[in-house]
């Protein structure tokens, strides 16, 4: 038996497992598809404990949110409990060379149902798919608009730009001025600081409660939604980061991926462009599901949220480059630098078109 075939025996699956195969190339978790003696399939996933310090809290959040969606008649995955009745299986692992021998090391595994007859996309190339994607993010928020339970803040400071500035400043300081990566990134570091105040102003609205706290997914890129074969959105997946925050983080993060004509790490930066038509299609889909509960402050800040999240992602990629690639998986030595540059190009394109973005939102509202 392979390791993963052994791991899966800890979960309370009604069927006999026939095969466990690696699936995709996540930046953060390791994911496998589990085939069984019936045509039902499951996902087995090793959660990255370095990135998610509170896996029990994260799984409790996912359980609450998926249960609520189901209670509203929505489609979502179901967590499979372990034979001990937990949402995760904790497995002791060997310390790797260089790690402290007395530190207790565990891998955390989870298992959940695979939603059948669905597909996911890495990149949207039709306005119909983009509109469905907008409906998907909107549907997720709308299904959870009356959610009243507490969620654990599993990643404190996740979209908090003030916290990110502190992290960034520390990275720069730790690197030291002779660090070749920092020297290479000097002009990109300046671009971070030139937008700081504007970004802090937005964060202030979140922190002081002007923007209400609701359930947010916190990773709403296209590939985190499942579609049926007709291109209709079925369900949000990857709920690892589900927390209580402003829904504008989700809108902004979705725009970062949907309205970019290229992947987030496109290396020919001069080609990267924010596409207003895509923005409009996504916003139409999104607002068709959410206009009934969003308040005026949320509506007037939708456009800016896209700049905020793109900027934040730019900062995080750049910071990881300066740190020596400790957070995101990279495929080549300066991958994080390329990601940062590509996100900056997208941000600049958004900045140029910002008045048009605002106008687009107003126009959609007036036609709803
Ligand atoms: C990470 O690996 P994935 O797709 O779940 C990251 C997101 C970033 C994204 C960039 C917990 O998400 O915040 O936007 O990479 N998730 C975490 O591609 O840091
Ligand atoms: Mg994610």
Strands, count: 9
Question: Which word captures the global form?
Answer: globular
Strand order of the largest sheet: 1-2-3-5-4
Compressed to H and E, one letter per element, the order equals HEEEHEEHHHHHEEEEHHHH
- SS content category: alpha+beta
Description:
The structure is a single chain. With 368 residues, the protein is α+β, with helices and mostly antiparallel strands. The chain has two domains: 111 residues, Phosphorylase Kinase, domain 1 (2-Layer Sandwich), CATH 3.30.200.20; 241 residues, Alpha-Beta Complex (Aminoglycoside 3'-phosphotransferase, Chain: A, domain 2). The chain is built from eleven helices and nine strands. The protein has a five-stranded antiparallel β-sheet with strand order 1-2-3-5-4. The protein has a two-stranded antiparallel ribbon with strand order 6-9. A hairpin with a 5-residue loop joins strand 7 and strand 8. Helix 3 runs antiparallel to helix 8 and helix 10 packs antiparallel against helix 11. The longest helix is centred in the C-terminal third of the chain and has 33 residues. The protein starts with a helix and ends with a helix. The model has no long low-confidence stretch (mean pLDDT 94). Bound molecules: 2-acetamido-2-deoxy-1-O-phosphono-alpha-D-glucopyranose (GN1) and magnesium ion. 2-acetamido-2-deoxy-1-O-phosphono-alpha-D-glucopyranose binds next to loops.
